[in-house]
Design goal:
transferase, Archaeosine Trna-guanine Transglycosylase, Chain: A, domain 4, proline biosynthesis, Carbamate kinase, eight-stranded mixed beta sheet, alpha/beta, five-stranded mixed beta sheet, glutamate 5-kinase activity
């Protein structure tokens, strides 16, 4: 499996490639990436670009300022975003479009579907989407936090079949290559096991926000949607000629044989839970087939509205699923505190199930 067979590719570029010295955008590493995008399009492939770098690109404009300040970082992002987009546009003789997203946009189902429609329309018109997190306005509650995971969410939303994450190392090693000369590069990873995650270290770049762990998280999101994923060295120009020739210049993560359905994938990997439902352990052995009723609930944690996503746990603390709650935490708290016979007799029949079968995403470990 190589990008030769891929028709829709998402490529993620980090801040260190955009603004390696944090003094504005530089073309040193971007030219090879831009040529790769051009050549992919010439082969009839659709490309989406997820580009970090707004804060790094705008940093040099804020002299004598405390750059650790949240307000200053947001201003740097606002100023740097225009420089970053104009830098990319200089490389292309085809149109591009800017999409600035927050996790709040992606975790809301209606807005998520709107994003999908926008991406599909841009691609149909031959326009290159350039996507970044909206750092100028996002808050801790609404941000993805790193563009590795954002790129995987975008790849899933766009129904891509290939995700390329550019890093400052060649791929995933079995141990930290900066400390261990005998570290071995993994060519292909078939499954992201706890042992694979244990190989990750911290970021090697002082500019970006994501380390190898966030890249593995992104690979897990993408491969579960059926998207082959590569982690490659974006600083090495041979990387992109290798990809174009069907080679694997980094680490390739193989997609699931049976990808998650789109709605289930969104709930599992994109929607964030706003609260928790604690249920009786014995009641949920067949969660993927049953509906959650009022008398299954032991406790309700958090404050959420009807229609928001919740995490479902059993009394032992095991995570069972994510699901959309048909009712608010206020009502469910009231129900949970009532006598179960009364709930079953007088409440359950009148309000219906708390969670419907179509709104449940069962965690993979329970599908053995």
């Amino acid at each position: 499996m190589s990008i030769e067979t891929s028709q829709r590719i998402v490529i993620k570029i980090g801040s260190a490639l955009i603004a390696p010295e944090q003094d504005g955008c530089r073309s040193r590493y971007l030219l090879n990436i831009a040529q790769f995008i051009v050549q992919c399009r010439a082969k009839g492939k659709e490309v989406l670009l997820v580009s970090s770098g707004a804060v790094a690109a705008g940093s040099h404009l804020f002299k004598n300022k405390d750059k650790s300040s949240v307000a200053v970082k947001k201003a740097m992002a606002a100023a740097g975003q225009t420089e970053m987009i104009s830098t990319w546009e200089r490389f292309f003789d085809f149109p591009s479009a800017q999409l600035l997203l927050t996790h709040g946009d992606l975790r809301d189902r209606d807005r998520y579907n709107s994003i999908r429609e926008t991406l599909f329309t841009l691609l149909e018109q031959g326009i290159l989407p350039i996507i970044n997190e909206n750092d100028a306005v996002t808050t801790d509650e609404l941000k993805v936090g790193d563009n590795d995971n954002l790129s995987a969410m975008v790849a899933a939303a766009a129904d891509a079949d290939c995700l390329i994450i550019c890093s400052d190392v060649n791929g995933l090693y079995d141990k930290d290559p900066n400390k261990n000369p005998d570290a071995r590069l993994l060519d292909t990873v078939g499954e992201l096991t706890p042992e694979i995650y244990a190989m990750t270290g911290g970021p090697t770049s002082s500019v970006g926000t994501g380390g190898m762990r966030t890249k593995l998280q992104a690979a897990e999101k993408a491969t579960s949607h059926g998207i082959v994923t590569y982690i490659v060295n974006g600083f090495n120009e041979d990387t992109f000629s290798g990809l174009l020739n069907g080679a694997n210049p980094g680490t390739r993560f193989m997609p699931y044989d049976t990808p998650m359905q789109e709605a289930v994938h969104w709930m599992t990997h994109t929607a964030s839970e706003q609260g928790e439902l604690i249920v009786e352990a014995s009641e949920f052995d067949e969660l993927s087939c049953d509906e959650l009723s009022c008398d299954d609930i032991v406790a309700v944690n958090g404050d959420f509205s009807a229609g928001e996503t919740v995490l479902v746990r059993n009394e032992d603390g095991q995570k069972l699923a994510k699901a959309n709650s048909n009712y608010s935490s206020c009502l469910l708290n009231f129900i949970a505190q009532q006598d179960k016979d009364i709930v079953t007799e007088k409440v359950q029949d009148s309000i219906g199930p708390v969670i419907s079968q179509n709104d449940i995403a069962v965690f993979e470990e329970r599908k053995s």
